[in-house]
Amino acid sequence: MFLYILGLVAVWFICRWYRETKRVSNKGDKYVYITGCDSGFGNLLAKHLNKLGFPVIAGCYTEKGENELKKTTSDTLTTVHLDVTDSDSVNRVAAQIKSLVGEKGLWAVVNNAGVAVPSGPTDWLTIDDYKGMLAVNLCGVIDVTLSVLQLIKKAKGRVVNVASVFGRISPFGGPYCVSKYGVEAFNDSLRINMAHFGVKVACIEPGFFRTNVTDTMLLKNDLKRLWARLPQDIKDSYGDQYLASTIEKVDERFSQLTDGNLMKVVSCMEHAISALHPRARYSPGWDAKFFWLPLSYMPSCISDRIFLKNLPKYKET
Ligand SMILES: NC(=O)c1ccc[n+]([C@@H]2O[C@H](COP(=O)([O-])OP(=O)(O)OC[C@H]3O[C@@H](n4cnc5c(N)ncnc54)[C@H](OP(=O)(O)O)[C@@H]3O)[C@@H](O)[C@H]2O)c1
């Protein structure tokens, strides 16, 4: 009986693997629009798709990012200046894309741009800290998608949203997890809404990878900035050791978990764009597959216990 079930599982995996190897044809006609191409996953994906022969429209936040990307890619990659928090900028780029892609429409948009600071305990943050990050990580995703959705419907194309494992489980305070849970919700409703039009919607939920988002120097300096601006009564409630202990935990956790192979994420993005049968969700990274996602399915009493055991040192009460 056990061998029979094992055999069925093996056949299911082989069938799935075969189905997922098939790719779309005419890559040269399929424009892909990516946000946040200055660095990290977006930058690598833009270069990778350019090599594979897809025409790429790479949204860059800075002029430096645009210039550096242009130097290393062919002329089928077009860079555009894009700030996803500014609707004028988003609409200007959408108009450029409309004239570039013509009647064929846009094959795919990859909502990749994102930020990870400020992050910290909830009562260290202000509502403006929340609004600032939600503007990039969540409203930016929605605004960019809406700006090109009709062009994607025309091509029966793809929307690829970059969320995170922290769109599935929320072990630290601040707007990052809130924004990524929002991306998951937007992604799932869009996937259902667009099915009728032949548009496929995929969500990428990476674990920890080495990019600016996980730059420990940046995160630690920002924690120090947040602590320095706190009123004395909040500082007193946490105690003198808390900041140093938090910084120690950041170093410890990030060195344990962060993966340097960004291609694991980029390959999932590429599959979502180029496979005939893309998946609804991709979870690149061992920590995502074997720690964060299984933990997200467990009862809160178990996940809370694990997180509470690993908290920084508070003042004795
Ligand atoms: N690295 C990880 O472990 C990890 C894990 C899960 C999910 N993610 C997600 O993956 C995505 C890509 O991040 P990454 O890890 O590759 O980090 P990254 O290198 O910092 O990439 C983020 C990109 O977004 C750009 N950006 C920031 N604000 C923007 C704005 N207002 N408008 C347009 N672009 C803007 C950044 O430009 P500048 O560089 O010029 O600021 C940068 O190019 C993010 O959504 C992130 O949340 C990352």
Automatic annotation (TrEMBL):
Q: Name one GO molecular function term.
A: oxidoreductase activity
Q: Name one GO biological process term.
A: steroid metabolic process
Using the record, list the residue span of the signal peptide; answer none if the entry has no such feature.
1-21
By its UniProt entry, which InterPro entries does this protein fall under?
Answer: NAD(P)-bd_dom_sf (IPR036291), Sc_DH/Rdtase_CS (IPR020904), SDR_fam (IPR002347)
Protein origin, superkingdom: Eukaryota
- Per the record's keyword annotation, is GTP-binding included, yes or no? no
Q: Which UniProt keywords apply?
A: Oxidoreductase, Signal
UniProt xrefs under PANTHER family: DEHYDROGENASE_REDUCTASE (SDR FAMILY) MEMBER 9, SHORT-CHAIN DEHYDROGENASE/REDUCTASE FAMILY 9C
Q: Which family does it belong to?
A: Belongs to the short-chain dehydrogenases/reductases (SDR) family.
Q: What is this protein called?
A: Dehydrogenase/reductase SDR family member 9
Which source organism does the UniProt entry give?
A: Parambassis ranga (Indian glassy fish)
Gene behind the chain: dhrs9
